[in-house]
Amino acid sequence: MKILLVEDDKTIALGLEYSLQQEGYQIVLCHDVASAKKAFFEYKFDLCIFDLTLPDGSGYELCKLARERWDIPVIILTACDEEVNVVMGLELGADDYITKPFRIRELTARIKTVLRRYQKENSAKNVIELGSVRINTLDAKVYKNGQEINLTALEYRMMLTFANNEGLVLSRNQLLEGIWDVAGDFVNDNTLTVYIKRLREKLEDDPQNPTIIKTVRGLGYKVGE
Q1: pTM
Q2: Which of 29, 69, 89, 122 could covalently link to 76 via disulfide, CB atoms 3.0 to 4.6 Å apart?
Q3: Same structural domain for residues 106 and 212?
Q4: Looking at residue 192, what is its pLDDT?
Q5: Same domain, yes or no: 214 and 118
Q6: Is 6 within 8 Å of 51 (Cβ atoms)?
Q7: Is 43 helix (H, G, I), strand (E, B) or coil?
């Protein structure tokens, strides 16, 4: 479980980092908005904890970014519990807030509650995550590292076929059945090879060495472990 912690008070930040690590969480610690934005592109986070007051901006900005672009749950740290601060944070997508000073047990309890609620909501929203790729089946959209990827109807159907069979090896015939006659297109074995290549070019960091859509020699393809 990886958490992005953004707190400009280095004494508080180090204390929180240590305490959360003792609870078994992996912590990426940042002290300002700029480094936090950079971290978003370097790691995949399960939850974010943002202080509101930062030297180069506001935790509100990070909160909005985390929820709208990466759909990551957020807990806000605030030095005061004024209603305007709380309401603004929640309106921007924060899942919870905690007022300083607080006990680490209170924070870890909030973390567990937010994660449980988020996982339940994600299931209801039919969001499928495959590493850095996220599929929102309600909107029929696919994202890579938070960026929407434009897929054709056939490409999306193929990706959904993979996602619904995560960890299983799919033969070429099974894939053809999954995408047959979408948008009125005829798909044969040769066409399938082309679509696999196109999907990899859009989704893989290195299409020549795929880590998402893997080839299982002599059997077919699979996504996931």
Answers
A1: 0.58
A2: 89
A3: no
A4: 83
A5: no
A6: yes
A7: coil
